[in-house]
């Protein structure tokens, strides 16, 4: 198979979809890999490293899309890329369709095969390609939140861990999944008083067992959230519904309950956000203020630490990408239910329920679609 790795062009997105080590693995199985010039530079990988690993370097993004059968990316295509995408071309990347109707319709119109990292799902419902970036984002949420609590950043002027004789900050984390767990570990390690809310009592029991004494667990509901935001200094939104739009747990009217300089970090912003007043920002202009509350809503947080993120992402995606390349996407998805769950849009049809529900669009059955594909292959 011919694999293409374009340079990411979303604002301040410094990651790249494949390391030189990943290129070498594709080459070991006889595949051809084209990488755009300087695609890995911001992640710390020089063009010469890709060449040494067996990649062919191409100068422009148009060249990459024009030649590749499978495009490997980090973030969803942006508007300037839509016209470059070919019918039947496989795109393997983070899409987060439920938060963008324009992107969804564009991929339907292009009749591409869109396999989303974030909905590849194991039998135990874990999300293996989302986990590494969720780990990064969860830890970064505290790192960034601590910075924006500083007075020059319009925060409350509180040191997250306090000092002897002065109370530490109160950190509220909504969601006890991967993001929430990593955020809690970081905040607790820095000495903050941490509260995690989740709707799963089993998850709260688990977190209560593994977390240090300065972490409390509370069952999540609207009343509990309204009470908690009154005394929270940093609030992290860490709620995920795979492939679907995140629910608004912090509503507009709750801002009035918060103290001036409270910081909100919505890690779920690329899936619509779980804080009603959050809209996507960039690393260039990461925050804005509403009702004296600081909002940090960067949609690609791990892009700020691209070396760590790129290596972690390739570690997770490579085995799946090799299956797609070795077998073709149709056979790979028929034989691997994890990959099949990653299919969101196929040749103009939506095959993932969360995306169809988000925009009231018709849903095709992915199993039937794959069976039709198999019949067509046999007849051909």
Give a structural overview:
- With 380 residues, the chain is of the alpha/beta class.
- The protein has 2 domains: 2-111 and 306-379, Rossmann fold (3-Layer(aba) Sandwich); 134-304, 3-Layer(aba) Sandwich (Rossmann fold), CATH 3.40.50.720.
- The chain is built from 14 helices and 15 strands.
- The protein has helices at 20-28, 47-53, 61-67, 79-82, 101-110, 131-148, 178-189, 201-210, 222-229, 306-327, 329-335, 337-340, 353-359, 366-379, and strands spanning 2-5, 32-36, 56-58, 70-72, 90-93, 113-116, 170-174, 193-198, 215-219, 234-237, 263-266, 287-290, 293-296, 343-346, 349-350.
- The strands form 2 sheets. An 8-stranded mixed β-sheet has the order 3-2-1-4-5-6-14-15, with helices on both faces. A 7-stranded mixed β-sheet has the order 9-8-7-10-11-13-12, sandwiched between helices.
- Helix 6 (131-148) packs across helix 7, helix 10 crosses helix 11 and helix 11 (329-335) crosses helix 14 (366-379).
- Belongs to the AlaDH/PNT family.
- Keywords: NAD, Nucleotide-binding, Oxidoreductase.
What is the secondary structure topology, with strand pairs?
Blueprint: E1 2-5, H1 20-28, E2 32-36, H2 47-53, E3 56-58, H3 61-67, E4 70-72, H4 79-82, E5 90-93, H5 101-110, E6 113-116, H6 131-148, E7 170-174, H7 178-189, E8 193-198, H8 201-210, E9 215-219, H9 222-229, E10 234-237, E11 263-266, E12 287-290, E13 293-296, H10 306-327, H11 329-335, H12 337-340, E14 343-346, E15 349-350, H13 353-359, H14 366-379
Helix pairs in contact: 1-2, 6-7, 10-11, 11-14
